[in-house]
Amino acid sequence: MNLNEWKASGEYFDCDGRPIFYHLTEHAPEVLLCLHGFPASSFDYHKIWDALAREFAVLSFDLVGYGFSAKPPDFGYTTFDQTDVLEKLLAHLGVRRVHILAQDYGNTITQELLARAAENRLQFSIETICMLNGALFPETHRPILAQKILISPLGFLFAKLLTDNRFKRSLATVFGPQTQPSAAELDDFVRLFRFNDGKRVAHRLIRYMTERAVYRARWVGALQSIRQPFRMINGSADCVSGRHLVARFREVVPQLTDIVELPEIGHFPHLEAPAVVLEKFFEFQRSR
Length: 288
Description:
The chain has 288 residues and is an alpha/beta fold. The chain has helices at 3-9, 46-53, 79-93, 105-118, 145-150, 155-161, 164-172, 183-194, 202-205, 208-214, 216-224, 243-252, 269-272, 274-287; strands spanning 11-15, 18-24, 30-35, 58-61, 97-102, 125-131, 230-235, 259-262. The chain is 44% helix and 16% strand.
């Protein structure tokens, strides 16, 4: 499925006057929820979407400020705001149980969901969790240069002046050396990033990097308290959250031992090695 087909086959949910783009394969009380990261969108899952849909009702959506969703200048863009939107979408769709497949910023949102579950605040249950690459601990996060500039006081200006080619070069650095994105794939990332004047809010999207430090106790504590079946599939060649993230994970959360390491893969395993991710994800689901 190409990007045009993805957009045409999606739907919109009106969340407090803001259109939220989502894909749902079938209405069901139990879904596989696929959460994307920065600076991407739900389209990240398109290579494994059909295979997942043969086993699950699959739901993914574009976070506020991302992809084909609204990108308002007056939204808070905190992890708490994004998680509130997710909860409203799930309630709108009548979802009561979720399996989570998350990557990058989607992992942080999963951590906040776990924290809310511990507080008995969720109207649905979390059945299983599978995380792909993504920073879970502020002390091991290694942002690329573009992210560092975006979160600086000059971030708004950098986003405004960011060229498509610079965006593509920066994004390519987090892929594995042997699994670089094609020119067409990079064009899709740019189109989604620029859609609805997305550049104007890019510096606000990156705030989660600061939040991870401020709320470390809450979100790392949620990881340490996981009771659900859990697997991590990690691309070791990722300069942002690769093998060094796994090493720290084993120190901080030693009880979660189900970790699959992919030596030659970078930050986007589901794009770089979709067949392997599917194999390892379904293996995890069968084993539980």
